[in-house]
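Researcher: Structure prediction, please.
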Amino acid sequence: MKKRMALKSIMTLVTILGLSACASQRHDLHDAGVKSEMGVEMAFKRDLPSNHISTHVDYGIIQAAGFVDDETQLHKVANIMSSHADQYKVINNVKVLQVHDNTKDEKHLAKAVNKQLNAKRFPTKDIGVQVRNGHVILSGFINRHVDINDMTNTVATLPGVKTVDNYVLYKQKNYSIA
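Model: Predicted structure follows.
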């Protein structure tokens, strides 16, 4: 499964890098390439639950958010992110929280979160949702103004949600690649 995800990420990276784009879109391609590269790195790290970590890259900022099982895994994520710290501001919102819930329950709750956010017209395609033991992490970069507190409160009202950490950021407007 991890190898298939890694292969998919590599294919995505090759596709993105193969595209030619005008100068104003260079940063989007560069950011997408870095996001794919980090996804591949996480997929190949042994004992790292990469499917429980959302990675977002936008205008010189890398954000990771989600859950790992222990401090060793947290350190692995930090190492992957720090390898890009010379080009990006790194925001690590990954938390240690051991799995207790059934994975099926977590997936069901994550779908319910996305459905509720979508119903309230939040920009769900740009928001990563990670769930573990009833704890929800929202992350990503959105390009329109929304009430972040309203987003958090909307998710908090769902059955099965214990806490909500909202790390959603607004997309940056000014960016240049050196």
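Model: Residues 26-44 form the longest helix (19 residues).
Researcher: Thanks, that helps.
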